Amino acid sequence: MKFVACDMPEATPFMLHIYAAVAQEEARAVSARTKAALAAAKQRGVRLGVTGAERAIRYKAEAKARAIELAPILRDLKQQGLSLRGRLKLATTRRGVRAWLPLSAFNPMPPFSDRRGSR
Question: Which residues contact 85 (CB under 8 A, 6 or more apart)?
């Protein structure tokens, strides 16, 4: 089967074979260097990566801290009679309270707006 490379139409099958062999050798060399570097780091006691359990502990602590931070604001808004999630979201946004993630990360609906259509 005839093969023509768009960026090098004059390439012969032999040239393509050589390029493939060079690329394969480079991939092997990169892999060997990476494995050696990881082994050396492990030997020095460097800890690589974080487990899901460790992340869960950190995220739980961050969530608790954020809940403590937001509690007085949400309590004040509830005392004003704003109990629906959308109204709370709108009121907290107006006060400059930022969410951890954008609303679209949880729900593809557009952001809430008041009756006049402003944000």
Answer: none
- Residue 104 inside a domain? The answer is no
CA distance 63 to 92: 17
Give dist(CA 113, CA 88) in Å, integer: 12
The one-letter code for the residue type at 75 is R
Residue type, 81: G
In-domain check, residue 103: no
**Residue 113 belongs to some domain of the structure:** no
Half-sphere exposure of residue 112, counting CA atoms within 13 Å on the CB side? Answer: 14
Number of helices and strands in the chain (H, E) = 3, 0
Q: Residue 60 belongs to what domain range?
A: 52-97
**Would you state the pLDDT for residue 56?**
87
Query: Do 5 and 19 have their domain in common?
Result: yes
The verdict on pTM exceeding 0.85 is no
Report angle CA 59, 60, 65 to the nearest 5 degrees: 95
